[in-house]
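re: the backbone from monday

yeah here it is again, tokenized this time
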């Protein structure tokens, strides 16, 4: 694992995607138009996106000791992800996420992610060398706060770039995590958890970013739902609209976004260029069902051309 650019700390699961024209009411049925079974979970999606973008990436998450877990790890290896840090939990079935998407691109998740499929502080302690060895650590905050804090503390103590994706509902954990972070990516709902208000336009997104900047991170990426993303750093800010791309399923768009954001920062690109790169990566993910990214150079270039000037 020496020489990793990024270690992703987050969920690993089997992702079952079902496309239907409409979700049937109780007591009725509906045909499935398309079905996909994928390596999924936010952590795995982010790791795959980073590998596709050219990063040397590892993954710290949990799978069961079952055949499904073995298949998911094999898929991740084939995708170029170092899975040596992944925990194989004895007696635990691998997590399952069912993504039900209707013809209006509205999704509904059914999740079987019991506690044993989540990281514990002792799992993070067992991966301390990997956390200290990566140039950046990307922590997905749907994991328990104690595990997320352990990962962020270990990375910060080693002087690594700490990127947080999301917001824990526990206020005390949020305060410490923000103090440990270099970068925070938060969607509109998560921004409301942290600030009390969900941004509704570009000015609101930039204002939320400035407010959160005072709590520790040196770069904020704040979603304004349906409009775009606000980026704020100590000596600058920019709002980048969404790319003009028809949406089939926006599952995984945020994962591609934060992967591209992290890698752009590691490459020391200007902040405004990193912002457009991240939005382009998200746009390249919404045109197909499921959260698995498909981030080719051609897809990124096409999306950059589709981002309107504000």
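seq for it, each position gets an aa:
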């Amino acid at each position: 694992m020496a020489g990793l650019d990024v270690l992703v700390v987050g969920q690993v699961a089997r992702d079952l995607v079902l496309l239907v024209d409409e979700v049937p009411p109780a007591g009725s049925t509906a045909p499935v138009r398309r079905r996909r079974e994928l390596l999924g979970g936010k952590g795995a999606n982010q790791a795959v996106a980073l590998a596709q973008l050219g990063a040397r990436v590892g993954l710290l998450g949990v799978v069961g000791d079952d055949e499904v877990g073995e298949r998911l790890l094999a898929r991740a290896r084939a995708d170029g992800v170092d899975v040596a840090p992944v925990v194989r939990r004895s007696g635990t079935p691998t997590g399952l996420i069912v993504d039900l998407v209707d013809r209006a691109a509205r999704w509904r998740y059914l999740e079987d992610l019991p506690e044993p499929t989540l990281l514990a502080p002792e799992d993070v302690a067992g991966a301390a060398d990997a956390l200290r060895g990566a140039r950046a650590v990307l922590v997905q905050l749907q994991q328990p706060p104690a595990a997320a804090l352990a990962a962020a503390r270990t990375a910060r103590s080693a002087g690594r770039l700490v990127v947080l994706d999301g917001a824990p509902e526990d206020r005390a954990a949020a305060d410490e995590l923000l103090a440990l972070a270099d970068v925070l990516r938060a969607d509109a709902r998560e921004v409301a958890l942290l600030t009390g208000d969900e941004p509704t336009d570009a000015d609101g997104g930039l204002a939320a970013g400035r407010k959160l900047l005072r709590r520790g991170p040196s770069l904020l990426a704040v979603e304004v739902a349906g409009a775009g993303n606000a980026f704020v750093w100590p000596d600058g800010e920019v709002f980048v609209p969404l790319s003009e791309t028809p949406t089939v399923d926006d599952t995984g768009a945020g994962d591609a976004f934060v992967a591209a954001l992290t890698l752009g920062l590691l490459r020391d690109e200007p902040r405004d260029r990193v912002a457009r790169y991240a939005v382009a990566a998200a746009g390249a993910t919404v045109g197909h069902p499921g959260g698995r990214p498909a981030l080719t150079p051609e897809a990124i270039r096409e999306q950059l051309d589709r981002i309107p000037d504000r």
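The chain is about 35% helix and 25% strand. The first helix runs from residue 42 to 52.
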